[in-house]
Amino acid sequence: MLNVAILGASGYTGAELLRLLLNHPKVAIRALTAERHAGKPYAQVFPQFAMLDLPDLQKIDTLDWSGIDFVFCALPHGTTQPIIAALPSHVRVVDLSADFRLETPEAYEAVYGAPHEQPALLKDAVYGLSEIEREAISKARLVANPGCYPTGAQLPLIPLLAKDLIDADSLIIDSKSGATGAGRSPKEGLLFCEVSDGIHAYGIGTHRHGPEIDQGLSKAAGRDLRVRFTPHLMPMSRGILSTIYVTMKPGVGLHDLRQALESRYEGEAFVHVLADGQAPQTRHVRGTNHVLISLHPDRNANQAILVSAEDNLVKGASGQAIQNMNIMMGYQETLGLTLTAQFP
Amino acid sequence: MLNVAILGASGYTGAELLRLLLNHPKVAIRALTAERHAGKPYAQVFPQFAMLDLPDLQKIDTLDWSGIDFVFCALPHGTTQPIIAALPSHVRVVDLSADFRLETPEAYEAVYGAPHEQPALLKDAVYGLSEIEREAISKARLVANPGCYPTGAQLPLIPLLAKDLIDADSLIIDSKSGATGAGRSPKEGLLFCEVSDGIHAYGIGTHRHGPEIDQGLSKAAGRDLRVRFTPHLMPMSRGILSTIYVTMKPGVGLHDLRQALESRYEGEAFVHVLADGQAPQTRHVRGTNHVLISLHPDRNANQAILVSAEDNLVKGASGQAIQNMNIMMGYQETLGLTLTAQFP
Amino acid sequence: MLNVAILGASGYTGAELLRLLLNHPKVAIRALTAERHAGKPYAQVFPQFAMLDLPDLQKIDTLDWSGIDFVFCALPHGTTQPIIAALPSHVRVVDLSADFRLETPEAYEAVYGAPHEQPALLKDAVYGLSEIEREAISKARLVANPGCYPTGAQLPLIPLLAKDLIDADSLIIDSKSGATGAGRSPKEGLLFCEVSDGIHAYGIGTHRHGPEIDQGLSKAAGRDLRVRFTPHLMPMSRGILSTIYVTMKPGVGLHDLRQALESRYEGEAFVHVLADGQAPQTRHVRGTNHVLISLHPDRNANQAILVSAEDNLVKGASGQAIQNMNIMMGYQETLGLTLTAQFP
Amino acid sequence: MLNVAILGASGYTGAELLRLLLNHPKVAIRALTAERHAGKPYAQVFPQFAMLDLPDLQKIDTLDWSGIDFVFCALPHGTTQPIIAALPSHVRVVDLSADFRLETPEAYEAVYGAPHEQPALLKDAVYGLSEIEREAISKARLVANPGCYPTGAQLPLIPLLAKDLIDADSLIIDSKSGATGAGRSPKEGLLFCEVSDGIHAYGIGTHRHGPEIDQGLSKAAGRDLRVRFTPHLMPMSRGILSTIYVTMKPGVGLHDLRQALESRYEGEAFVHVLADGQAPQTRHVRGTNHVLISLHPDRNANQAILVSAEDNLVKGASGQAIQNMNIMMGYQETLGLTLTAQFP
Question: Which of B242, C27, C94, C281 has its CB 3.0 to 4.6 Å from that of C321, i.e. a possible disulfide?
């Protein structure tokens, strides 16, 4: 059994890691940390776990690392750099924060407004978009788990850019997210009455996931690009739907896009290209690690629309983190991730 | 007092017409029709009206037209052509269906798949986008009330196209709608459990409001264009948020777009251009006839993002219908439409 | 015009007072206070008012009372006693907090855990359940507006207890409330993801509205009683549905209950007894000052079930406050309160 | 492997059976029926199963029973009597409809308004409230799976009645249900816009689950009783919360109730009595077979309040059906049912 600790277990991604790992045949949960809630039984912050035997919450600095093999770090952005740097070297890590996602200290500082504190560690970190970076992930000690929006945006676009089928300068990603993406800290704008029965865009043109998406797509395209990306907050708990507008290169048709996606994701357990005429719903991946991708002709001949659906807490966070752990440990990639969506 | 009849009063737009007209100082409700429910008290189909004294529902062919001055026709698409053709000539009409929105019989047939039955009437119909067609509306006998999506899409774009500030060939409109837009007829896909806690796109590249949007924008641009338009169904009762991606013409900046919108809508009671840094929420126009428009710089210098918010049942249907009635009758345009949004 | 100030205008009840008063023909809004937000335009805390010309938010102690005739006090429980005591004597007040609802300082201290600071003022305050205390309200300077739950619980029961038709010792009130009842202060338990798609009871056997309900019902029954009252929080923004279980006195039938309610509320604009076979929905009073009451036979012959529906922000708070203002000022009682429910 | 068929697989309980059984180590899904959808791939009615290899939907009469060991019958109430009667005798059955729940043909006819067609089969059927009827279930060929409301109502009350701790004549069960309980057939009252943002009671004093609850509780009490039971429909997909009001027998205290429940359910995997001061939420059992029960003192000394939470689709339907299958087959009772709740 792999001895696992979850740092920052009192947030939504922490609880989701636990829900999924409890169904994983090779994992034993050894430690759960939460600074503010240290000393409490876990069920006091998430009562759905009351019928299980789990370690109490503790502070990170009281953790006995000798019994830990693997760490999921689900701490707030900007706080994980010193914590990961201080981990004993035998421990492998998937970090769910944004701290190690951008590849250079310069890029990090430009987006997050502070110098990166651990540039050496950053250099060794591997970006954990599982289906794209599987080889590097398998050898990494530190995997930077992708952001929720970047996961749903990059998976449909990388194969198309890699094969030079679409114009890299006209990419538009319009994403709609559930409220778990904003975390569990109480804020007026996240109250039930402020989120229900309505929708709004936020971070328009400025959201920090924009540069993260650029980084991955630029690599695929072989040159720098900047997507147009707009996130929206809507009344659902889980899920991101991304509607993606692309312009095809001369001579390219929708069929070529389909072929590129299908051949790239053939045999993948979690990425599925839907048949013609189908469109994905976030409900159909709720609670699962699946990403659904559909392709649609536009009324304008050289243009196409793609739609991707994921669960932001699973493939967009904790599920992909476990998928990455499976890759790192040489386990079957689907372990702990075989559930069907809970719909309705 | 203006003697008003509502045809098709048992649907959501019918109930919304009634809710608003009951607050209108110059209107008396004289007749309400609903074929299937004829003979019932109105409160049997919409109990919220139980404390009011309203005419019972009746069949259209039992209606005594001698006491009616004005008709709102809230019947299903495709059914209103013979009904409006049969109305006595003294009656003025706002039709909320799609039957008279496209200007030529050819365009109608191309989109709705059947020949138009009343081409002469179609020729006289005026498209009722109030702020744009006010002059023609004031003289019309038959006003074709715009679709919900086209209202929120055209108002932000027409001034920009009219001033040639943006590229007419790269317009993308990504719209998110509440479920009232789909009507009250029972369908599996509209059940609570199928709509709540999720989102999906539908009619991708094929929705009938695409050509309606094209028609208005082409007129503003002075040449034919085809927008890229994707509607989404999401768990809210009312509201449409449209996120609109535009490419600015060389030399044009965001400030020019703002100036064009502000000068075009200066003094308008229902169209509001938000200040820099603000973004609209559908919640803030819930139950009102207002449209909120915001402008945002993109990370790409020559591009911009606009967002519009409306209530699909009010400015997107019944409210604009009443605004058009006010224009047609020479009333103050805001009569019956002065309520503030019900939020939360 | 009556010159009105709203103290505590940045909460949900403050915004709802404003929404309704803006539709009131005899009221001019002269001042809006909010300590934390002083100096801001009101639309910065509630953007739906952006298109209106309203006074900026200010601190209470900067308010010029010479131009104010009437005050709505929408401040947190426990904070209003010194504030109301300091108001100039020419100002009449409706207080929406709980501070003046319980009639004796002893009762207040027993429930709220602190001595009442203004016992003299408490003695003069009138409990503002409009339909029951209309006469006293009309002469009061200070009206204590009832709690949301007590309004929906007392209106159906007072007439039955007053006529001695039901057993005063077996009353059960099971209430389901929307989330606006919990206010706008950010708390983990009120986040969208914590409230949506589920329900729970809270304050079981201990909620502070229990004694408030007891007070009114005891008065009607002519002796002390203690109801069994359980509130629940559920995913809706507005509304309280109360399901009420009563045991009829020997010889009493459902018809007697109906007669007592119908005769008591005959001619009332806002309290409606539904016909046999009908049951109220909170949706049908959303945004209105109406209370709907239904009566149902139980399978046990001597027992009956009543259901009441109200909007907790309107009849349960701001609407009833305006109704009380109308009574105090000698206005027509329905002024500003004639809207039909916004459904869907 | 146990070869399983699901009859009526196109409804919500059918899909939930499948979701759970796919996670069951001893079950192979061999056939799925749905009369209207026969011939379609299952993913066409529930797209969340698209990535799995499942039998196509077929008509019941085309099913080859030779390869089937066990049947879940998830057909509409009133339709299953001839179908189950026609099953080959080697097949064991859990019927999720109401057809075999009431123990006598007389009781069935009184409640369902038609004579029972298979009285002999009815006599052999065992009521499948797993924790209460485990012994009989283990030997049964036909188990009648309990209704969703009766499950959450009976589990807390049976131990208290069996020990004569509470008054059998004053039981009140106020239940709040999610919309999956109403099924997937399109009806106006189940549309998103009719269910969201509100609540209402239905079947007040007449719901068919009342007599089913009576039957189980009467057996526990040792004499006939009639509960007062009110169901409510509210905007959540899954879950039932039941608030239960009891009067304690003289000399009995809350502690005695707790002791009775804890000793009765000690060691049970799915029934949990919460600690003092805790109250259950439906969210915390979402997607699981757990029932949470809490006890609360009332302000009236001889009275108490209990709250139970369950997922109506799991412990209230498909989960308990699988639990019963496990009991019937001698499997470990928790097989396929070990998931933690999906919250948020």
Answer: C94
Give the distance from residue B323's alpha carbon to the nearest chain A alpha carbon, in angstroms: 24
Q: What are phi and psi of C324, to 5 degrees?
A: -65, -40
* CA triple C25-C26-C29, angle to 5 deg: 100
Q: Is there a contact between D311 and D301 (Cβ–Cβ < 8 Å)?
A: no
User: Which residues, other chains included, contact B66 with Cβ-Cβ below 8 Å and sequence gap of 6+?
Assistant: none
Contact C200 D170 (CB under 8 A): no
3-class SS string, chain C: CEEEEEECCCCHHHHHHHHHHCCCCCEEEEEEECCCCCCCCHHHCCHHHCCCCCCCEECHHHCCHHHCCEEEECCCCCCHHHHHHCCCCCCEEEECCCCCCCCCHHHHHHHHCCCCCCHHHHHHCEECCHHHHHHHHHHCCEEECCCHHHHHHHHHHHHHHHCCCECCCCCEEEEEECHHHHCCCCCHHHEHHHHCCCCEECCCCCCCHHHHHHHHHHHHHCCCCCCEEEEEECCCCCCEEEEEEEEECCCCCHHHHHHHHHHHHCCCCCEEECCCCCCCEHHHHCCCCCEEEEEEECCCCCEEEEEEEECCCHHHHHHHHHHHHHHHHCCCCCCCCCCCCCCC
Percentage of chain B modeled with pLDDT above 90: 100
Radius of gyration of chain D (CA): 20
Token pair, residue B31, equals 């007749």
**Among candidates D150, D158, D157, D272, which has minimal Cα distance to D213?**
D150
Query: Residue C172 and residue D172: Cβ atoms within 8 Å?
Result: yes
Q: Do B196 and D12 touch (CB under 8 A)?
A: no
Q: Check the CA dihedral C333-B289-B19-D192 and report its sign.
A: negative
Q: At what angle do helices D254-265 and D148-162 cross, to 10 degrees?
A: 110
Whether D73 sits among the annotated catalytic residues: the reply is no
Q: What are the structural domains of chain A?
A: 2-145+317-329 (3.40.50.720), 148-314 (3.30.360.10)
Of D180, D193, D194, the CB nearest to B193: D180
Interface test with A, best of D10, D22, D197, D342 (most A CBs within 10 A): D342
Distances (CA, A) of D70 to A242, C175, D118: 42, 43, 20
CB burial of residue C207 (10 Å; 0-12, 13-18, 19+): buried
For the stretch A40-54, pLDDT in tens is 999 999 999 999 999
Q: Which two tokens stand for residue D18?
A: 């499948």
Task: Provide, as residue numbers in chain C, all residues whose Cβ is less than 8 Å from the Cβ of B54.
Answer: none
Name the residue facing C191 among A178, A186, A197 (closest C-beta): A186
Q: pLDDT (tens digit, 9 = 90+) per residue, B194-225? A: 999 999 999 999 999 999 999 999 999 999 99
Chains with 3 or more CB pairs closer than 8 angstroms to D? A, B, C
Question: What token pair was written down for D269?
Answer: 């995997």
Extended strands (E) in chain D: 2-7, 27-33, 57-58, 70-73, 92-95, 126-127, 142-144, 172-177, 200-201, 228-233, 240-247, 271-273, 291-297, 303-310
pLDDT range class, residue B82, cuts 50, 70, 90: very high
What H or E segment, with its residue span, contains residue A304? strand A303-310
Per-residue confidence at B106, pLDDT binned at 50, 70, 90? very high
Contact C228 D283 (CB under 8 A): no
**Could you tell me if the ipTM is greater than 0.85?**
yes
Chain C partners within 8 Å of D193 (Cβ): 344
Q: Which residues of C touch B237 (CB under 8 A)?
A: 344
Rounded CA separation D37/D55 (Å) = 13
> Cβ contacts (< 8 Å) between D205 and chain C: which residues?
296-299, 305
**Element holding A80 (H helix, E strand):** helix A80-85
Nearest CA in chain D to B10: D188
